[in-house]
Amino acid sequence: MHSEDTFAALAMWQWRDAQLTNIAEQLEDAFPALEAQLRAMVAATSWRQAAISFGMQKPLKTLIDHWAAEQTQLAMTRAEAALEETIAEIEETIDLGSELQHTLASTAPFLVGGGLLALTLPAIGMAATFGVQTSTVLFFFSTSTVSFPILAAGAVGVGILGASGATVLTRYSDQAWKLLERRCLEAAFERVFGKTGGPQDKSILNAIQLLVLKAGENRLKDTRE
Amino acid sequence: MMTEQLLYQIPAHLTSGYESGAYKLFNSILKDAATGHIVGHVQQTDALSKMIGATANGGLSVLSGGFSPLAAVTVAQNQQIKNQLDAVQQGMGMLQNLQVAGLALSGVNLGVSVVGFAMMMKRLTAITQHLDSLEARVEKVTADRREDGLRDLLASLAAALENVDTLHLRRNPTYVAEALQLQLDELLFMLAARFRQVLDQSSLVEEDLDLLWTIASAVRLCHEASERALFVAEQLQLAAKRAERQSSALLEMTGTLSSDLLARRIAQASAPDERQARRRAVLPQAQMLMSGLQEVIGATAGRASLTHSLFAQGASGRAYLETVESEKEHPLLFLPERQKATAG
Predict the structure, then answer these.
(1) How far is B54 from chain A (nearest CA, A)?
(2) pTM, entire model
(3) Is the ipTM value over 0.90, yes or no?
């Protein structure tokens, strides 16, 4: 590899490293706000809805997907601005005799590389471009393979209480509601950060990171055209 | 073979141009920011090593003593290092880019290494000793955590270093240098395999970051030794080609790493509610590792470019090393890119 390609690859590596860290910290910082929304949602949930198996799942998923779409937009905007800066810096110092397009395109596959992230969502598809619309991101999350923990246990628990009569309900409703809330929060945590928290999980964090890297890769490939 | 002067004091217009942004330094490669053309290469000298060694208080004493464990580097403050480098007055502008990680992993990286045999051995001994302490830190040393194989590689490296040091005394240094280079190549492959092995473990612990740092430092030492051998043997074209390949190989070996992913893999062992705090605690070390690896790759690419330039000018590798090692006054010297200058 020519030294200019090496320095371009190093610049892209620094961009990638910064973006991945930024996204992890962004989601960690934003998660308390999602928790607050989830608590409010649970508090506003009717007994009837909570009593139905999977009754909580749809609103919970909708809430988390919207939050994830918002986080994706923030991450994409930040990453795009940083990438343009990086490209401009490379452009400024690359020898005019060499091809910038070739140099940038040669670093594109290096961005996603063979890392563990690439294994999490094999078909990232159309959403991976900067400037993507919220609706597209939402569609991506609703159809993606990011797993969603089954809430049936929590919902059924409330359902059984609901069917046991008013006395039991009065005695245990606070406890049951807290249980439901805790399960919703745990489910959200797992969906956002993954079952183990690692890069091999199917999680929103890994999905956003991979989306950003793929978008970066596509941006670099675009310079060839 | 060319015997005329190759290295000069850095011209004043380049120093001021660098400060104003007209010239940019990519490791040792100095470029015209407007055209991207290489105007020359910056070469560290023995004077720089001495100056850094002389400012022996605080952070620099940690970093100038050869190999430094990752944890020690992480606690050293970047600003503290910069302040100490201020004491090195000459060529200071060009030294501003030096990062703690690069200094700690492999010493100053501007140009061809001027580290002598004694320093190389000191660094290797420190690496080996650190390996022992790393093992002791891992609570239960299981079979896959033992580093006997790595210790054997370091012992072979020590033998190769001795041979490199006495190369110039041999009747036929070229033949021995080529044999040494093959031996060092083999060691490099094995070190790279061990590096990948650490990464491929099903789980990572904090000590693994330090182990990766340790292996990377041994890799760097291999590069320095093999480059020195080829310079003494006057095989500059081969040295340039190899440095180019080494930077690509290093990039391939480490380029998919990310500090966030490493930190998260280590944090996986923690309870879910403790993972974020753990990730944030481990992240600085992972970032320092990334930074060190990137600087080593940049330095190798810089050396490849410099060596290409030396070869194109018909320079003598041995004379170049002697000039750099005998310079006691100026911490940095300048190798103009003559071909480009005359062509333009």
Answers:
(1) 32
(2) 0.85
(3) no
